[in-house]
Predict the 3D structure of the following.
Amino acid sequence: MAPKREECAKREVMKMKSSEAVMKNTKREVNKGAWTAGEDQKLAEVIAIHGAKKWKSIAAKAGLNRCGKSCRLRWLNYLRPNIKRGNISDQEEDLILRLHKLLGNRWSLIAGRLPGRTDNEIKNYWNSHLSKRISQREKQRSTGGAGDDDSTIQISTVDQKASAQFGDEQKKIYGEMKQDSSSEEGTTTTTTTTSASNKGGDDHEHYSNSDIDIDGFFDFSNEGPFNLEWVNEFLY
DNA sequence: AACAGAGCCAACCGCGGCGCG
DNA sequence: ACGCGCCGCGGTTGGCTCTGT
């Protein structure tokens, strides 16, 4: 599983020190690099008062030499309430695998199904853990070796079933579907756009079409956080 | 103890969509 | 209808820690 998140705190201290030095040297220019505790606090205060929208004005009100984009990212990935800082659990990992199989690199959508997890975190986790593991399996499979653990089985099962259910009109569906996962507490606010269907759409042409209930798919109202039953509903 | 390479993650960048004037 | 600015997304990078030699 995901190793040592405990080092995060240590890391933060290190970054605070280095970024304070950066701030001193780059007054007036837009500040980039690691956020300091002071910046975090200011940002959180302004958002508490004005809400998490109009990022440009938030940046101005907070008096930070940061662009709105940077403030938004910091809030969504770090300061937002209900963010989970712990290891990705097996259950979450399984969910990520399934969702990635289904959705491709739509990290924000995947994050929308994992309360407390950010798209950035999932993306990082995928890039550093799961993608490697999967490519290893692909290798194994192509050289005649059999996959050996749970996720291998899950992926292939999901693959078959998803393929059976979904056809070739993925782009159409994703182009049409809109979702607002902000209805789920503590998750990334996202709006799926048509761009999403193309940009990250590497190797996932095989899903979509058909009778998939998009509204149902993104209806988070009746679920426990990691209940996988809903996935089965759409895959099986 | 010192160094190099790998791993990890926060943050930045570039692009495209949307809304508004 | 058009242009502009803002926002959100996915991809990429920079820098730190860990691990092996």
Notes: The mean pLDDT of chain A is 62. The CA atoms of residues 166 and 207 of chain A lie 5 Å apart. Residues 2-4, 7-8, 11, 15, 32-35, 69-70, 73-74, 77-78, 120-121, 124-125, 127-129, 191, 193-196, 198-199 of chain A lie near DNA strand B (CB under 10 Å from a C1').
